Amino acid sequence: MKKVLLISANRMKKPYPVYPLGLDYVAGALKPRYQTKILDMNFCPSLDMLGVQVREYEPDYIGFSIRNIDNTDLMSPRGFLSDYQDMIGIIRMQSKAPLILGGSGYTVFPLEFFRALGADFGVAGEGERLSLLLDTLEQKGNAASIPGVITSETSSVRYLPWKGELHRVFDPDAEYTKFYISYGGMLNLQTKRGCPFRCSYCTYPHIEGGKMRLLDPREVAHQARRLQDAGAKYIFVTDSAFNASYEHSLQVARAFKDRGVTVPWGGFFAPTVPRKVIFNNWRMPVFRTWNSARSRFATRCCRISGSLLPPPMSLRPTGRLKRPASTSPTIFCWVAPTKTGRPCGRPWRVSIG
Fold first, then answer.
1. Domains of the chain (ranges, CATH numbers)
2. pTM of the predicted model, to two decimals?
């Protein structure tokens, strides 16, 4: 069985480290045809250790996932291209395996990263397509014929959403999983892919497509419970907008309750007003706001970010936020208008149940 090493190149830990969720799905797409190992550079202490891990694993293929292009800090900007070049330099010294780039950051500039890093192949868009690329390479086929795959001959990129199955492989005993649990305790999951909104600042539709593909709420709740049982103190939903489909998001919330998910959870929300039938069908208040921010920004696709993070990393845009005494799943959010990016007014409180 061929061995695949999946490397998460992200090393950012501020404001909190982000679990490499995408590689769980890539590993799920490769299983059981390939033996996979995930190497997280947030957990790997040095480039020397990276070299040791590559040499000892002896992979047949190496996937290099780029999540961050820069630190998104306007006051002190810093790009990460040179960091990735250093990592790949070490990898090339220890292995002759084909190097394949991927990830959300890579998808924004696929051709530019491909040329700057001297990769053998690239996968723009959803990473599950790596399975098609590896199967094609094993069969000596034409990799350039696969949508989203970058080769040395590629001059333009065809972006197509992944139409295959989505299967996550989560390992609660992995060392990198324990790292995230000990370093703040935030783990993440998806309830859907694709985004119907057209916000000028957002790359979600570019990466996942503009049509929503909804995951089974029961499977999502099962994943959430696994994260909770593994020790997660907070679960972040990585959807472009959790409530883009009110029917589906409420089904997920109900499934969370039924499954016994009690840790705080949150994500990105679009501040739209649900239809009255939603409230009637579910017979429970879903959105309760502390001010009139919803009415002012209901027509905008604004970002709302979950702000109830495990101490000491709680985000406090307008004052201290305390965990509610109730065990009902509760999300604390704040509104960020698209023009300024600054929190508007007091936070929203979103209660499920």
1. 3-150 (3.40.50.280), 184-351 (3.30.750.210)
2. 0.81
